[in-house]
Amino acid sequence: MPSNNVPSHIAMIMDGNGRWAKERNLKRTAGHSAGAEVVRKITEHCGKIGVKYLTLYAFSTENWQRPKLEVEFLMKLLEKYLKQELSIYLENDIKLKTIGDISKFSKSLQKTIKETEEKTANGKKLTQVLALNYGSKDEIVRAVKKINEKNLEVNEKNIEANLDTAGMPDVDIMIRTSGEVRLSNYLLWQNAYAEMFFTPTYWPDFNENELDDIISDFNSRDRRFGAV
């Protein structure tokens, strides 16, 4: 377990599933399945050490450009994951929240997402936030539209109140696996003062020990938020 302060909000870009599978002469879908197992382990670990919000980039607005069969597999995997994890959420006092526009998903998947959110609504230990059909630019545009519909002034306070993450603290630690060093349209507003960590580890190989090491590094950093 990491020492010192545990961050309130950790965000992750779970990258490298496909490359992990390719290096093992497996189909890309095998990498996604392996990655889903890691989601469970990391979520449970975050709950145990006191993290309050864990936000995971599960499906971006750009991921629709992937091969049709892979997208279909990801949709089925997500629905299967949510149904299987319901008991895990409840046993570990975890709440599920989704951000993004899920209206493009199948009626069945939308129903599963909403039911899981409702059944876990009383989770107090950790909120697992799944970014689904999410893109930060899209989120900010939707927030501004809501503000205009309400005839409110466009300012930071009102934008934050109308983002998908309204009521959540800003990101403390942003982690991307697989060696890629970019945000890929992920939580651009919320990551304004996040500490960034980019690890070469593929997501299916990421584990609790590496997360603890990152949190320890986080605790050694001097976060000044623009001040001296």
Describe, in short, the structure shown.
The chain has 228 residues and is of the alpha/beta class. It contains seven helices and six strands. A six-stranded parallel beta sheet has the order 3-4-2-1-5-6, sandwiched between helices.
Could you characterize what this model shows?
By secondary structure, this protein is of the alpha/beta class. Helices cover 44% and strands 16% of the residues. The protein is built from 7 helices and 6 strands. It has a 6-stranded parallel sheet with strand order 3-4-2-1-5-6, sandwiched between helices. Helix 4 links the parallel strand 3 (94-99) and strand 4 (126-134). Helix 2 (28-49) runs parallel beside helix 3 and helix 5 packs across helix 6. It is globular.
Helix-residue proportion: 40-55%
Main pleated sheet: 6 strands, parallel
Give the overall form.
globular
- Counting helices, strands and paired strands, the structural category is alpha/beta
Oligomer: single chain
Number of strands: 6
Radius of gyration over C-alpha positions, nearest whole angstrom: 17 Å
Count of discrete alpha- or pi-helical segments spanning 4 or more residues: 7
Residue share in β-strands: 15-25%
Strand order of the largest sheet: 3-4-2-1-5-6
Low-pLDDT regions: none
pLDDT averaged residue by residue: 95
Cα distance spanning the termini? 31 Å
Return the string of H and E elements. Answer: EHHEHEHEHHEEH
